[in-house]
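Revision sheet: structure tokens.
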Amino acid sequence: VGDCLFELFRQAEHAFLLLVDEESGKVEPRVIRVRQIEDLERARYSRRLARRCLETGQAMLWDDAGLGDDLTVNMSKASAQVRSAMTAPLMSLGPRVFGVLQVDTLDATRKFSPADLQLLCGVASLAAISLENRRLAHEAQREAALQQRLRDDLE
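Predicted:
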């Protein structure tokens, strides 16, 4: 997913796939990609943007031109150099938000646009379908194994 995001969004410097742990409810980064390997140690996703996306189920486009808004004022020090960021929810049928795709850039001259956000939403929809199918396949395998054990116990 991360590599695909870099191909689609040439201005992206960091890409994150964040999933909600079903047991703890905590947001966990599952994929972290950086365009420059030396940025890996400093790559941080915006918890505030991710949380807002998870709570509302809405994609978000943010840039530092919104100085003074509640998101900008409360941006973490780690993400203080971010000049533009986008988040899109990963939703299952239900709809239940189970994760977020987030990309950002530090370059003030290469901010994301509303068209970029629409594209990210499309990618998030495809990623959500793939992740949900994978989860359902694992669940089906567990069920089949349980049924086989029960059959074996009955024989």
